[in-house]
Amino acid sequence: MSVFQRTIGIYPIGSVVKLNNGYIARVLDQNEGIVRPVIQLLSDSDENELEDKAVINLMDNEEFHVIDCMEAVPVR
To answer: Which residues, at least 6 apart from 23, have a Cβ–Cβ distance to it below 8 Å?
Structure first.
């Protein structure tokens, strides 16, 4: 792992990512496990905006993982 990856992470803060369950989330913070950031859920798998925008630390949650980094995602 490079110094750049350790500093910035694979998913920089503010990145919008897609999870394995189809949900869309924003990266809020990095962890030592650079592929398991702290995220905030934005929309469900049908791209419907979530009322409860839960914050999840992926280091503490083995159920979810990032499968893609999105450029911009419309939220209904």
So the answer is: 41, 42, 43, 44, 45, 50, 64
Segment 35-70, tens digit of pLDDT: 899 999 999 999 999 999 999 999 999 999 999 998
The rounded mean pLDDT for the chain is 86
**How far is 46 from 8, CA to CA, in rounded Å?**
30
Asked if 39 and 26 touch (Cβ cutoff 8 Å), the reply is yes
> Are 39 and 69 in contact, with CB atoms under 8 Å apart?
no
The CA-based angle 75-39-30, given to 5 degrees, is 140
Residue indicated by tokens 């859920």? 41
